[in-house]
Design brief:
Elements (H helix, E strand, L loop, with lengths): L3 H14 L8 E7 L5 H16 L2 E7 L4 H14 L3 E4 L8 H9 L4 E4 L12 E5 L1 H16 L4 E7 L5 H14 L5 E8 L4 H14 L8 E4 L2 H13 L9 E6 L2 H8 L5 E4 L5 H14 L6 E4 L3 E3 L4 H9 L4
Parallel strand pairs: 1-2, 1-3, 3-4, 4-5, 5-11, 6-7, 6-8, 8-9, 9-10
Antiparallel strand pairs: 10-12
Helix pairs in contact: 1-10, 5-6, 7-8, 9-11
The structure holds alpha-L-arabinofuranose.
Alpha-L-arabinofuranose (AHR) binds next to helix 2 and strand 9.
Length: 320
């Protein structure tokens, strides 16, 4: 049976560990990407909190955006004989070998927030949003908002090769197909960071007549949008009015920008991926029944009509 060793050693522990503080600890390794965005930092905070609440000993490794560091961390977790591994994979490809090693060691792996191009028998489950759908929601909002008027769009992509960058682009383009008035005129990576988002937006503005030719910005995350908003202001234009701004994550800062009229819409991504992941792991260890391969989180659209300052206050208490 798959992951039999982990089950044997962890079932007894889990029985007295999950849901209550206990002397017996389940040991889980977590390979995190880094801290490129406000969303990522909140996911780290919440994963640590969720582990603590469940009495899990969480071994945390920050990969500083490098896949090779993630692979090293996973190998070290395997060598330590952890009961399970969480990994937020920085890019989609190149995981087969190390996931096979974890499987051979009978250690269940759970993917958090990003998907991989690997056979799904190499991991227990993936807790992610529907990344294509997120891009689709953003694109539909834009198409509805411009309502047939001609609109040149610039796009800030996430980290090259990451599943959210690939899928959010795809979903957005799907939403725009059939809307000949909407055209993506520039698209480049901003690596999910504020600094790069600003830098790349500056180059877009420069290349497009100071921005006069740009009608909307689609950013694959809020942090890049926040950086780009600054660039738009410095170029003497009004973000949210002269250039519409739609992005993804729903971090507190974007609600402040929305309240100021400088951002228009965002698609929410919950930073609490660990809660459902630990629940699935607990159920698996208890009942020996594998969870669904995909545990999908919601993707809610927020606009300026949603009382952004109220949402900002609510969000501040949720890991941000
Ligand atoms: O994988 C989720 C994405 O990673 C978030 O949208 C982004 O902010 C983060 O860096």
């Amino acid at each position: 049976m798959k992951f039999a060793k982990a089950l044997a050693s962890a079932t007894i522990l889990a029985a007295c560990t999950f849901g209550s503080a206990s002397a017996a600890e389940l040991v889980v390794g977590f390979s995190q990407i880094g801290s490129e965005s406000g969303w990522r930092a909140a996911e780290t905070t919440l994963t640590k909190q969720q582990a603590e609440q469940r009495g899990i000993d969480l071994k945390f490794a920050d990969a500083q955006q490098k896949q090779e560091n993630q692979i090293k961390a996973i190998r070290s977790f395997i060598a330590q004989g952890v009961n399970a591994i969480l990994v937020a994979p920085v890019v989609a490809t190149g995981w087969d070998e190390v996931l096979q090693e974890a499987k051979d060691a009978e250690i269940p792996v759970i993917l958090l927030d990003r998907t991989v191009d690997a056979s799904d028998d190499l991991y227990l489950t993936a807790v992610t949003s529907d990344l294509v759908h997120e891009g689709n929601v953003a694109g539909k909002w834009l198409a509805d908002t411009v309502a047939g008027k001609p609109c040149n769009v610039v796009e800030l992509q996430g980290t090259t090769g990451s599943s959210p960058a690939i899928d959010r682009k795809k979903g957005f383009e799907q939403a725009l197909s059939g809307h000949d008035n909407l055209k993506i005129i520039r698209s480049q990576t901003g690596d999910f960071t504020r600094t790069k988002g600003k830098e790349v937006m500056e180059s877009f503005l420069k290349a497009e007549g100071g921005g006069k030719n740009i009608c909307a910005l689609y950013a694959h995350n809020d942090d890049m949008a926040v950086g780009a908003i600054q660039a738009i202001k410095e170029a003497g234009l009004k973000p949210g009015t002269d250039i519409l701004v739609v992005s993804i994550d729903a971090v507190p800062d974007i609600f402040q920008a929305m309240a100021a009229g400088e951002a228009n819409a965002t698609v929410e991504l919950t930073p609490n991926m660990a809660g459902p992941a630990f629940d699935a792991l607990a159920a698996y260890l208890k009942d020996k029944k594998a969870p669904a391969k995909w545990i999908q989180t919601e993707s809610k659209l927020y606009t300026q009509a949603d009382d952004p300052m109220k949402v900002y206050e609510e969000k501040k208490g949720l890991g941000y």
